[in-house]
Amino acid sequence: MTSTHEHHHALADLAPEHPARISVSQLLPDVYKAMVRLDIAARKGLDPVLVELVKIRASQLNRCAFCLDMHSKDALAAGESVERIVQLSAWAESRHFYTEKELAALALTEAVTVLTDGFVPDEVYAKAAEHFEETELAQLIAAITVINAWNRFGVTGRLTPGHYTPGAH
């Protein structure tokens, strides 16, 4: 399957693809399997599209190219619109694209992801608690934590984006 990018440029024009630095998942299959189980447990009961939005936003903040590729494709496969995915990096200026519940989740995602930026402010947590009942809120916090862990493996390993097919993990 060719990417949209390849339709606009001849393959010869593209910068060379760099191999990954290290694949922790290949070297430590037990860690990878545990992470996958943690991921499944974390998102249990959450709206799958909401989870993808959260994963994309955290991955944008952490600049994890591999996870951005994966979760943008998964979101599209789950029925998310291109427009809402594109607007995610500017969600605070594009509030009318999202529900109040999604906005609360995105604000919490940012706060949990960028912990050095004033920790998780009370007002951000309170807004999330208004839209998510307690167990669902705990699931959301877990899902945000898990994507941040995946991002750290992806960014440190410099995993190569572009090869993921939805449903392949």
Biggest β-sheet strands, sense, barrel: none
Number of strands: 0
Helix vs. strand class = mainly alpha
Which range does the strand content fall in?
A: under 5%
Order of helices and strands: HHHHHHHHH
State the main characteristics:
169 residues; mainly alpha
Describe what this molecule looks like in 3D.
The protein is mainly alpha-helical. 63% of the residues lie in helices and 0% in strands. It has nine helices and no strands. The chain has helices at residues 4-8, 24-27, 29-43, 48-62, 65-77, 82-87, 100-113, 122-131, 134-157. Helix 7 runs antiparallel to helix 8 and helix 7 crosses helix 9 (134-157). The mean pLDDT is 93.
Topology overview:
Blueprint: H1 4-8, H2 24-27, H3 29-43, H4 48-62, H5 65-77, H6 82-87, H7 100-113, H8 122-131, H9 134-157
In short:
This protein has helices at residues 4-8, 24-27, 29-43, 48-62, 65-77, 82-87, 100-113, 122-131, 134-157. The protein has 169 residues and is an all-alpha fold.
